Amino acid sequence: MMENAWLIPLFPLLSFLILLLFGKRLKKASAYVGIIFTLASLIFSILVLFERFSEPTYMTKFEWLTIGDLHLTAGFEVNQLNALMLFIVSLVSFLVHTYSKGYMNGDERFPVFYAYLGLFTFAMLGLVLSPNLLQTYIFWELVGVGSFLLIGFYFNKEEAKAAAKKAFIMTRIGDVGLFIGMILLFWETKSFEYSEIFKAVDSGAVSGTMITLTAILIFIGAVGKSGQFPLHTWLPDAMEGPTPVSALIHAATMVAAGVYLVAALFPLFLASKTALLTIAVIGAFTAIFAASIGLVQTDIKRVLAYSTVSQLGYMMLALGSGGYVAGVFHLMTHAFFKALLFLAAGSVIHAVHTQNIEEMGGLWKKLKLTGPLFLIGTLAISGVPLLSGFFSKDEILIAAWEGGHPILFLLALIAAFMTAFYMFRLFFMVFTGEARSEMKHVHESPNNMTFPMILLGVLAIVAGYVNTPWFGSFFGDWLVDGNPALGHGHIEGPIWIMIAATVVSLLGIYVAYLMYFKRSLSRNWLSGTGDTLHTILLNKYYVDEFYQLTVIAFTKGFSYFLRFIDVFVVEGLVKGVVGIVQGLGKTGSKMQTGQVQTYGAVAFIGLALLAVIFALTGGYLR
Amino acid sequence: MSLKTLSEFNWSVMTPEFIILGVIALLTLLDLFMPKRLDRRILGWLSIAGIFAAIVSVVSLLSVEPTSILHDTFTLDTFGKAFKLLLLAGAGLVMFLAVSYEAKDGMEDYRGEFYYLFLTALLGAMFMTSSSDLITLFIGLELLSISSYILAGIRKHNLKSNESAMKYVINGGISTAITLFGMSYVYGLSGTTNLGEIANTLSMVADGQQAYLLGLAFLMILVGLSFKLASAPFHMWAPDVYQGAPTPVTAFLSVVSKTAGFVIVIRILIAVFYNAAPSGEGGSILFRMHDYLAFLAAATMIIGNVVALKQTNIKRMFAYSSIAHAGYLLVALTTMSSNMIFSVWFYLLAYMLMNLGAFAVIQVITEKSGSTKIADFAGLYRRSPVLAVTMGILLVSLAGFPGTAGFIGKLNIFVGAFYGEPHYVLASIMIATTVVSYFYYFGVMTQMFFRPARDESKFNVPFGIIVVLIVAVVGSILFGIAPNIALDFLNNLQ
Q: Which segments constitute the NADH:quinone oxidoreductase/Mrp antiporter transmembrane domain (chain A) (predicted)?
């Protein structure tokens, strides 16, 4: 089966092509095309995953391009990480395809939406199968294009257009780092292939500084894609896209690509202590930073967006502390419960037609399925014992502690408290309390929307049991099998960490309960006690503003000088280039008089000029 | 030359040419004796069959050792085989366009000639790939040119078509004169017209004066032949001629004729100027003159791409785009890397596929709308998603995006520019002008996908066009994803 893994990305590609060509004629049947093809991908992925449990890594490559004595290869590889990612991506994609049939119903560009989903899924599946950096990079960019199209799907909305652009540009900034890192590695190791790169790093053929430099550059690419500080601002804005897209892109696939990249290149990162520390610090900071912003957001999707940023920070922290298994484990559980949360949020929005949680309330009785499912997701992400998020978060905390980062561990623990708090704040505000009078016609979503949520709900509960301190760490052992460098399947940690994590998350839930359910604590304690803090959080630490402000301050500081450069040099240059190109085009068109004499004359004058230069330079130019 | 020596030549190496010649003769006779009322389209299908037979015969000759007959005036070598296949494939696809072309504006009575004039032009081009003598090279060139002149003007009652033919003849005449003048210098200095002997004689030019004359000859031949390449400074005829000529002829000029132009330029550059090495430092004439070549390549890329931005007529836009592509190919010639012939061959292959495919779409659209404005493409995605997506793929390939043959072609040339002495300036101009080209190619995309259609009428796509489109799209993607197929093929040639 594994030798046929290359078929997995091709199914969604086929779906994309068919829908692009015949979408107009298929109309609503487009959904079935998309669903059937992603189902095929899913079945293949499951078969591949199960075969990979018992068989060794499969890899094949062929010479793709020869330019002179430069040989580039292409191929695909099924190792543990890739097989797992194939499964996660194709599963979530399949569920999102199914869900969208109900959610996007009635949209004018319904077939186009499914076509874009196919393109994006193809790119993502291609990405996780790539055995070399160049191929990864090509698919990486394609993922960017796919997300651009999906986020900007409602292109009549200015915000959506702006968000799509922002996402594209922000991640492009990271991509530049990745690109430079990739080229540097190629110069050093003479290969794009992962295995060759690891070999060269192992043998000491690459200097330590170079490893650190390239590792950090590649990490910058991951920072962009995975929405880590300071390139995170695109992710919340990207919520302008349709909600199923958020479940696909912002839970399981594109944002996970950055974590995947770090995991796939883990041996390279392991060779540099500095790079690892950078990842851990950025990860821990992002985790608490985004969680604190999540405390005060009032848009249901934005809360989830910031929680995604925060959870991705956790994964980075785990990887940076050397916890390969913990990072990948959390990547998997997070994919399930966050996709569930997004789909459930979509179901809520579908029912009440608003995203503002202040305007919601009392939906528990009306959405009999969505409510409990949302609760499952909330419990899982809060790290309540016995659900999947509990086990993976525990692994991360242990990894951070054992990795020797007590401060980062503390940050992560506080972030866990905040997570439990803001997630239950969200839950209580949406599902409990008074039902709004204008929400009389609220009804549960159709079956094709609830089915994916139920499946994800089950996974959000049980997915953690593949790797627990009680029932054995089957998952972790399998993940690092044959790769002792990646560390142990399960890191033994002190038992108090697990207790602390539980206490912290329960405490968060309790505070949220007091504040938003019992209302015995003032809801406005934050804005009451510290007006500034609340404002700061509400404004997301002014990062967007900071970006604007620094530019302005910078301009003011060097006011005239910069103004001069800006107006006369930069602008002049830009205008000049455009003007020259336009002018040349105009002149060229004007010279095209239509008179055949002119044409002959131009040729003749050209020849004469060349001959004159030739004569004047004494025959030879050099 | 006695009959005996004549019969001793290994004529079989000329089979492809004989097949084409035979088909031409057959078509002429059929056209003469067929009743007037019968549809001449059958002649077009016969030509396609003939071209196919010629392709088969070239393939069967692939394993033959390089052979020379007729006192070294006709050589079948690797170079000849590879480019002959390219020409035949290109001409075959053009024939499919021609069969689907609707005859009007006074062309109705000359339908038969329309087909076999393509074949005579092709025959000229094929002779050029195999000739190793200045005279046969020139004869091939003229056979190609004169046939094309008539083809451009075959719509007798169409003013644009007449104008096109007229301009083509006059400019062609000037270019021929210049080329011949340059060749006469070469002959005068070497005393022979055989390329091999020229190379021998000129490899020991002792005299600085002679080297000087050779330099002048180089410039003249280059400028004269730039007419066929449609490159600076002899490019200005292209937009007017392309616009007025029937679409299959335009396609032929932009692909087959250009390929033939590069064949003759490479033959002469390598045989004559690469080997001509005056004593003293500085290497061969070609090496010393390569700044001029670089200058013309840069000028061609800039002119083609920049002026294309301003066009509102799709055929004129493609004329400038074809100038631009000639510029990229000249970059490969300038750098003369060890990979040069493969780069040029592959680029011409990719260019043939994507350009002929694009012209097939253009033919469908312009015949429907009756005009050749770019605005006629508006809303094509709504009217015919298949045509729009096909055109989209071909445009993306023309612009040189990864995953398409156009990308690999540009990559080969680009990497070649860094072999030996790096050509930073030329490589940067190539990148910059490629970026400029995105604007006009994507202008057409915007029209197709994001503009409302003026009318919603559907298209009838003839069978011939479908064949061309399938070949073009499959080829563009196949050679973009697995370029080594082409490389292996060329490496296995004997």
A: 130-419
